[in-house]
Amino acid sequence: MLRRVRPLVAEISTAAFLLAGCGPGGGPASPPPAIVGGAVRVSGASPFAPGCSGAGQGATDYVGTAVEPALAADPSDPLHLVGVWQQDRWSDAGANGLLAAVSRDGGRTWSGSYARFTRCTGGDYQRGSDPWVAISAAGIVHQLGLAFDAGVGRRAILASRSLDGGATWSEPVGLQVDTDPNVALDKPSITADPVRPPRVYAVWDRLTGVTAPSQSVATGPAWFARSPDDGASWEAARPIYDPGSDAQTIGNLVVVLPDGTLLDVFTKVTRLAETPEYTVAALRSADGGDSWSTPIEVAKADPRGVVDPKNQEPVRTGDSLVSAAVDPGTGTVYVAWEDSVFSGGARDGIALAESSDGGASWSAPRQVNGAPLAQAFTPILAAAGTISLTYYDLRLDSLGDASRLLAAAWLATSADGGLTWRETELGAPFNLRAAANSDGYFLGDYEGLAAVAGPVGAFFVMTNDGSAPSSDVFFESSVWAAAPTANLEPAERRGERPLPAFRGRSPPREQPAGPLAP
Q1: Is residue 436 left, alpha or beta, with left meaning phi > 0 and alpha meaning psi from -120 to 50?
Q2: pLDDT in tens, 420-435
Q3: How far is it, in rounded angstroms, from Cα 374 to Cα 371?
Q4: What secondary structure, in 3-state letters, does 355-395 show?
Q5: CA dist., res. 322 & res. 298, Å (int)
Q6: Burial (CB count within 10 angstroms: exposed 0-12, middle 13-18, buried 19+), residue 290
Q7: I want to staple 169 with a disulfide (CB 3.0 to 4.6 A). Which of 115, 341, 354, 362 is the partner?
Q8: Do residues 176 and 187 lie in contact, with contact meaning Cβ atoms separated by under 8 Å?
Q9: Closest to 191 in 3D by CA, of 145, 272, 254, 238
Q10: How far apart are CA 124 and CA 127, in angstroms?
């Protein structure tokens, strides 16, 4: 028996804003440069009125920072793209709002919109985080996000859909709503099933016992919700895997194999109260999410985190998350994550494993970042005949320049199943120290990447090197990008300096149940 979380009201018409124009409560903004190193700037100045999320939140609001984007391509029209991101990131968690942008011409031009997730966009919650987006076979756009109040307060996994390609959005539906101060929600994602349309799936982790002294050992099961009708209604959310006490899942992501099998790929973190241990794992479902297998281990992982080698400040990355993609032609599943195993724990690189039997068994991980002597982080995968992977690294940084930390974004592609790779720089090198500081220099725990029938588009963040932290979301496509392949050898030599010991921080990655961590 299917149960609606609450009736879906008629699709509301939010006042779409131009990203370089007017926003909800904001005035006109001067458009920033349109192209940076071959990448189109999608976001712009903050569209929000000052203080729109409420006063007395006790943290730094980095107005003008756009971080943590996700991207989806329409399976019936690869020129139709929808991206989402956090706008105006706070130092302790979340942002003032989650914004969306739509392109109908393959990413050359974009128009803006927003769902009513937070107060700054007409919703109920102070902050939003972890935006995710998917487009169904019918062209319906689905957006998922975490919304919460600062401090001990309400939190929810919210879903909204768009029937007009992302221009307007429905009133958000709460897939899970919590007010218990000992609970935290984190890292939701949403997937439109291409094999069993109109089904849509959402997954996230829910931590309990995170603040109460009598419940000092937390647990974080994976939760799952399903819509049978393209987001018009949702079944009640339920846990599908419990890792036990002093353990959690994080970064749950459902991918669909050509035969309809679902895989929930995630990181299992154990020994939360001590030094966390990480395992990349997957659950299988052959019946559309009715039942799930026990976890299948992909690989042990040892992410150490990334650090600025010149001032030892941390860089917050997706070090505890995984990215996964299925090649619809072959059914091969690829999983990528951040790992220090290839350097004996000296620095994080990018690991890739694959499965040709529906996730039942996995290859040994191999390193795929092109400059193995430089710290690399936050990999994102897509697959459509060609494997595509984006990530950041520090190969172009000069240790002799103490005034900045130079980072670059890369697109790596493989046409032979991951045996060989070609790398292209995305955008231009940028100063990572100009990013918002949220447990480290922060571009996002993940970035966006989408591929449909050949073309691949990257949706990623670069900073604007000014007097105050500022960053924007950019788009670059393999169809018309002309950035040259970098010469790796000098950068590899520059990356040989030993790095100080640094471990990534323990989950949860976002809104804790108690007072937000500094």
Answers
A1: beta
A2: 999 999 999 999 999 9
A3: 6
A4: ECCCCCCCCCCEECCCCCCCCEEEEEEEEECEEEEEEEECC
A5: 11
A6: exposed
A7: 115
A8: no
A9: 254
A10: 9
